[in-house]
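Hey all, quick one. A colleague (J.T.) asked me to put the iron/sulfur cluster job into the tracker so the inputs and the structure tokens live in one place instead of scattered across chat threads. No bug as far as I know, just bookkeeping. Sequence used:
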Amino acid sequence: MNNAFSVSITTGDNPNDAVIKGINNLGGISKFIEKDETVFIKINLTMITGFPSNVNFNTLIEVIKLCKTAGAKKIYVGSFPFENLTIKDVSEELGLKEFTEYFGSELAFLDNSDKLKISKEEKLRLQKESFKEVEVQDSIIKYPKLILNVDKFICINQVNVHPLFDIHLSLLNLFSCIPFKFRKIEHQEDVEKDYIIADQYKTDLISRILDIYEIKKSNLIINDLFYFMEGAGPFIYKDSKINPIKHIVCGNEAIATDYITLKILGLNPKKNFLMSHWIEKNIGISNLEKINLSGENLEDINFTFKQCKKRIEDIYVQKFNIKKGEICSGCFLQSYYLLNFLKTFFLKDLNYLPQCSYLVGANPLEPDSPNNILLYGDCAIKTTEKREFRTIEKEGKDIKTLFLKKAIIEKKNKKILEIPGCPPNLQDTLNLFLRYFKKSNLPTLNFYMKKLNKTQKNS
Amino acid sequence: MSINEIFKENWLKILDFNAKIGEKKYLDKSLIKVRIPITPLEIDPALLYKLVSYIYPDFVNDKQHVLDIIISDDRKKIEKSYLHLTYKNGNHYKVKKIDLNNESLVDQDFKNFGVIFNKFQNNLREKEGITISGLRIYTEKAIDKINSLTSSINSIDLKTYLTNLCQIFYNLINKNMLYIYPEPSFITFLKRLVRYLNFIDSSKIFTSIFEVLPEFNSGIILAQENLYLLILIRKFSSNLNIKLLDLEGFNYDFNAINKKTFLKKITKKFKLKSTYYFNFQQLLHFLNDLIESDFPFEQGRFSLLLQKLLYAYKSYEINWHSYPRPIIYNFFIKFFSRLVGYNVNLKKLSYWAIPELICNIHNSLLGLSNKIIIIFTNLESSNKGKSNKQVSNAYLIETFNGKLKKISLLDKSDVISGNQLNSLSDIRNRLSSKIGYISSVINIDKSLLKLVVQNFFLNLNRFNPFAKLITIRKFQNQNYFNIYPKNTLVQKLKIKNLLPILIDKYEF
Ligand code: SF4
């Protein structure tokens, strides 16, 4: 990163105007795209939900139009969605294939989910053909060949609040250039205390995010804050709200663009986990402080916003008493998704549930009662193996007296739900909930899971 | 410019009646019939008196004397002024022409009505020794409009009248022809509604609603202490009939706990198909909550209002009654439907959970900022077969942070080409490029809406599972209902899976 970084901050009546101005400030689209070049536009495409969980399609339309005016030969649009969703699932529910085609681009089915009824072998072959193994640092990462092979790479990132990294930076957007299963940080061995204390999950996650960023650098980055999601994010939850900040930040380099975006939002980039890690790994902050800024004056912009809840015990979910132990970012992030998801869609189900103790992390606090204890994650399961609540005392016939006399006997507490994983995954957790609490007590979740499983089966 | 004779004659009759009530004079009610002002609806003046005294305090104001001023269209000159004297609660007993010609008006006055109000208030205090509680200012054009509405009141049918009323109300608000100070909450609410409907002509909305209503012949009883109002309402072919009656003269046992016999008698006597009984006070409370809300509603407020509505709906035989009894409350029907896996006990409707779920699903699926298009078609009037749907109306609905931002009428040419409805995907993409990203396009045929109203809201007493099933099935027929992009949650919706979400397991 030794070239001059240029970043532009623009505003306008609508995102379309603001993005045009932003790109013009950087020298115009022809500075980025030349005639007959192929372009890949990386967007946020997370779930079957509306804006701002996904990209602002108005901004996307404008960028496609600009690429066409620059004479781009082929424009691809794409991303990998969240968890087990395929690109086809999201495309069908949002009508994306036709939408992108209408505007003269093509939705890239990077996961080959558009190929109908093909054998498993064929699928594997396609996967091999579509991904290239790239060596970064000490690891091998499977990266889509399509993105590697295009001439120009643009990233449009819808900026929302994020529970772990304050805001959804373009670095996080670029991370979903690879499928969710390759993004997951899973700890297979027994969890050691150091892993949690050092928050190795977060360190590993950050390293992987930065590795992906290094593989293929974007030529043009657009951090779209025109409608900024605050309160809860990056997906749409009950407490999510849109704040019309009406600014767009464009730049020729992701780190530099994110750096300015953080500053616009009144956040100290040096305190941002992603940014500070990068600064530590690289030559330091000096280059970032020499960014060529154009457009609006950074000093004149002063936004305050409502952050996500940063402690899971602050996320209030009816009937869930959170008992936290030593916890790393893995269980925090997954718990954040789970608890927000529950409070958004399952008000009725929660009302049917009994009071539960949600134990998370190593050596969690004592549950309120021996009934309905949810042990979330391997740490909570392993470190409570010998805890008193694992057994209950019951009156029964004493074996020593050949069942003639009554005695207090110890039994395994069956009112415990173990949710394994380091960290556990959302869909598996919800399926375990259904089994433990019974479908009849979770009518909304049952309905939702049926639809989700069906959607995935169909694709 | 003066108000027409038909209106005037009726108004004077009402004033005369109210004056006599005020003076506690003996009245033979049966001899007089008046019309509700500016409507063709005939009513017993005593009933009107009672209705006004119940409705006025909540919806207009609970004070006395109102000043009406007619001004020139350029808003510079006062043409005429009338003082309406009132004993209490909006029941005027006397109208008095007064001279305010020496008062002048300037444009500035219309920016702050408090100032004009005080000016006239002082004038009247001095001249008449009277304090007014309200001021209504009509331009000459407004009087023209009201005259055009009332002049044919005796000869036009109710449907045409209501369409005209919507049109005139829309014009009065939209074109600043009427000013009321202090502005009653229902006028403020209606004004905001019209603004958010992006000034879509309200008569068009009325006609659309009227079209999807199937034929019916019902009675609605609004009851509370000392008031038993029966509204006979009948829709047949393209006509509508409404009659208002005071039930007090009919010698019924209003206090009977079992309303069934009472409602049965009414149904038979007036040859109705069904009769509904509502508590008037509760209805007024709900309407008051509605109009006191800031429109468009915040999602929290919307949830609360919907919760109240669903709670009232679930409280059958507590808050409302009907004859015949809806078949769904029949023990055997409930039992058998439960046996085949359909728990349809409406008394356990999840009134507390449904509104929030609707809001959260809306936000999540369509987004916190979204635009959707709803196209109403009319297969019944398409004579070239089902593939050639006639488009009635197409609306663009915009929401932001879950709050309605705007509803506007789309030009038909945006959705059809050569008389044919374009594919929904084409409409979505083309309009996205023109007016911004469209999340969803929904096409619904009016005949399907009609079936829904008929089978799920009106014919509640008939056991006709097939009609209901056919209606539900039609949602899967793209000629009647279509949504783009396809939404598995909506398209593959099965009532059996949905019922546990809508109906509670326990009574809370
Ligand atoms: S189980 Fe959870 S808290 Fe423990 S190491 Fe794994 S992710 Fe971290």
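Adding what we noticed when we looked at it: The pocket of iron/sulfur cluster is lined by residues A 187, 191, 195-196, 201, 327-328, 330-331, 361, 377-379, 422-423 (CB under 6 Å). Chain B is about 40% helix and 20% strand.
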